[in-house]
Design goal:
With 268 residues, the protein is of the alpha/beta class. It has one domain: 3-Layer(aba) Sandwich (Rossmann fold), CATH 3.40.50.150. 35% of the residues lie in helices and 16% in strands. Strands 1, 2, 3, 4, 5, 6, 7 and 8 form an eight-stranded mixed sheet that branches. Helix 2 packs antiparallel against helix 9 and helix 3 packs parallel to helix 4. The protein is globular. The N and C termini lie far apart (51 Å). It binds S-adenosylmethionine. S-adenosylmethionine binds next to helix 1 and helix 3.
Length: 268
């Protein structure tokens, strides 16, 4: 198969990549036939997946907006995916042009594409790294050039911790991240969470075993436990569309049945 110009060398084109599948859900063009075929299988099980991914991006925007308005100037987006319009720097720099954003993903397409589109934005960096070693991520020169560990930082874990299985102790990972941050920092999480027993989400999660990133769904209580003893911001861990919605009066009953939860906590 022909490799497009934006695709780095050495890609595994035989297996779907969750970053490129997600790009397809969002209507992007940075995906391959193997990703599109996989995405269509998931959509066959869960026809509303594209709408769900847009709702998840809505949470990302609302959380970044509120944290930027609260004075946070530094953002680290772990498992950032392919940075399309409406991403963290768009939202944060509109509120505070001095805001700095480090995007981190281990998918080579996400990293290469992000570096290309952000090369003219000196207050952003896109780094290829495994978020499960946060000390190594923060020690990367491109990150430490932008992010001052002595100042409050918002760390975003948006639709990514469900790729960290229980054996890898995701709550310990969140605690390790919190331990790297100055007082007044924040951690935002959104996470797949079945809305009822026998959720179609569980069938879709089964399909993700074909990727390099199997999915572990968690209950709202399990997601709340990922924050450990950090201080939750209002309204706590809730179904993703219910986290500080822009137009609460317009939310339909489906908002409370969203198959994912989100929350933001303060560090120190
Ligand atoms: C479902 S996408 C979410 C993208 C973005 N956070 C959003 O919500 O729009 C999950 C992303 O996490 C990345 N990812 C998964 N496990 C990772 C790891 N261990 N280290 C770095 N990135 C990871 C994937 O490559 C993918 O881009």
């Amino acid at each position: 198969m022909e490799r497009p110009r934006w695709a780095p060398d050495g890609l595994d084109l035989d297996r779907p990549s969750v970053a490129r599948v997600y790009d397809y859900y969002l209507g992007g063009s940075h995906n391959f036939a193997v990703d599109r075929e996989f995405a269509e299988q998931v959509i066959g099980q869960m026809p509303n997946v594209p709408e769900l991914t847009r709702q998840n991006r809505g949470f990302l925007r609302r959380a970044v907006r509120d944290l930027a308005r609260a004075g946070v100037e530094q953002f680290v987006d772990l498992g950032s995916g392919i940075p399309t319009v409406g991403n963290v720097h768009d939202v944060a720099q509109e509120i505070n042009p001095a805001a700095r954003v480090a995007y981190v993903d281990w998918d080579p397409v996400a990293v290469a594409h992000g570096q290309a589109i952000l090369e003219d934005n000196p207050r952003t960096a896109v780094i290829g790294a495994d978020l499960r070693d946060p000390a190594a991520v923060f020690a990367q020169p491109a990150v430490s050039a932008l992010i001052d560990p002595a100042k409050p930082t918002a760390v975003l874990l948006i639709a990514v911790l469900h790729f960290v299985p229980d054996e890898e102790k995701p709550a310990d990972l969140v605690a390790a991240i919190a331990g790297l941050l100055a007082p007044g920092s924040y951690i935002a999480i959104s996470h797949a969470s079945p809305e009822k027993e026998e959720s179609v989400l569980d069938r879709a999660a089964t399909l993700y075993r074909q990727t390099a990133s199997p999915v572990t769904t968690r209950s709202p209580a399990e997601i709340a436990a990922l924050f450990g003893d950090l201080e939750m911001l209002d309204p706590g861990v809730v179904r993703t569309p219910l986290w500080r919605p822009d137009f609460p009066d317009e939310l339909g009953p489906e908002a409370a049945a969203y198959p994912g939860c989100a929350g933001v906590a303060r560090v120190g």
